[in-house]
Write a structure and sequence with these properties.
The complex is a heterodimer. Chain A is 39% helix and 11% strand. By secondary structure, chain A is an alpha/beta fold. In chain A, strand 1, helix 3 and strand 2 form a beta-alpha-beta unit. Chain B contains 3 helices and 7 strands; from the N terminus they run αββαββββαβ. In chain B, strands 1-2-5-4-3 form a 5-stranded mixed sheet. Chain B has a two-stranded parallel ribbon with strand order 6-7. By secondary structure, chain B is of the alpha/beta class. The chains are: A alpha/beta, B alpha/beta.
């Protein structure tokens, strides 16, 4: 009997696969831009050539939740929109992450009224918050790098 | 111009730098609006805006609680006019203007949604901004400012 079959968990080998998967996943982020408001402009400028999100491996937005692994919620979410956002989130396959882009998605921002959801984390789990009204592209890239660190460090689902 | 043409049809009027405002009763609204649109000397062919005001919190205000406000524009004459209709709270109803200006359709739905003023004769008077499950009319001044009606998630 070889050593591998006698010790099937193989601690050393698994941890290396995790690291490799984390590395691959953090540099191939396929985002779903859920753009509802003015933050979308800042998202576009971050994605385009000047700031170029593609340098961080996040260059291909997918417009189907089934093909994407990071849900970028960009802009104010109203109570009318909330069930749609939840459904989009549920349609995404694991592993998946959520970025709250702009202060409205983080906390509701300056809205406190009958129509606005006070932070999307009341509906779906959020991994990275990027505050700002709207956030500067540098701030967005900083958030993206923080998300990459998180993806690298976390326990990988294989 | 408008006040001379429609003398006797309105309750009061004033003008500011040539832009006239007339206040009418709900009963005479349709007649006044038809005159404003179809009289060749007036020819107000565009309904620029249609909204409402809730005077509940106005201490100085006397009279009915609501006002529906119409802004009309005449492209041939380059003239504007504002028409206000007084609306009682008890029977918050105004005749619909969809027959005269099709643009009134969505405006009237918005006023119904936000203020709860009904437009009689409207082809499809349902909410336009809020979801169907929403109870009440949020721009009424007696709508509780902290009341939340989320479809999903906690009440915040």
């Amino acid at each position: 009997m070889s050593e591998e079959t006698s010790n099937p968990t193989g601690g050393f080998f698994t941890s290396k696969i995790e690291e490799m998967l984390g590395w691959a996943r953090k540099y191939s982020i396929f985002q779903y831009p859920f753009v509802t408001a003015c933050c979308g402009m800042e998202y576009m400028s971050t994605a385009c050539a000047h700031y170029d999100m593609d340098r961080f491996g996040a260059g291909l937005p997918r417009f189907s939740p089934r093909q994407s692994d990071v849900l970028m919620v960009v802009g104010t979410i109203s109570h009318k929109m909330a069930p749609v956002l939840k459904e989009i989130y549920d349609q995404m396959t694991e592993p998946k992450w959520v970025v709250a882009f702009g202060v409205c998605t983080c906390t509701g921002g300056f809205y406190d009224n009958y129509a606005t959801v006070m932070g999307i984390d009341t509906i779906i789990p959020v991994d990275v918050y990027i505050p700002g009204c709207p956030p500067r592209p540098e701030n967005v890239l900083d958030g993206l790098i923080k998300l990459q660190e998180k993806i690298q460090k976390q326990k990988q689902l294989v | 111009m408008v006040t001379e043409k429609l003398a006797g049809k309105f309750l009061s009027s004033h003008d500011f730098r040539g832009d006239e405002t007339i206040v009418v009763k709900g009963e005479s609204l349709l007649e006044v609006m038809r005159r404003l649109k179809e009289d060749p000397e007036l020819d107000f062919n565009v309904l620029m805006d249609l909204t409402a005001v809730d005077y509940l919190a106005f201490k100085e205000h006397s009279g009915p609680r609501f006002e529906v406000v119409y802004h009309l524009y005449s492209t041939p004459k380059n003239q504007r006019v504002r028409v206000k209709v007084l609306v009682e709270e008890k029977c918050a109803e105004v005749p619909s203007l969809t027959g005269l200006w099709p643009a009134a359709n969505w405006y009237e739905r918005e006023v119904w949604d936000m203020f709860g003023i009904r437009f009689t004769g409207h082809p499809d008077l349902k909410r336009i901004l809020m979801y169907d499950e929403f109870v009440g009319h949020p721009l009424r001044k007696d709508y509780p400012v902290n009341k939340r009606q989320p479809l999903i998630g906690p009440k915040n």
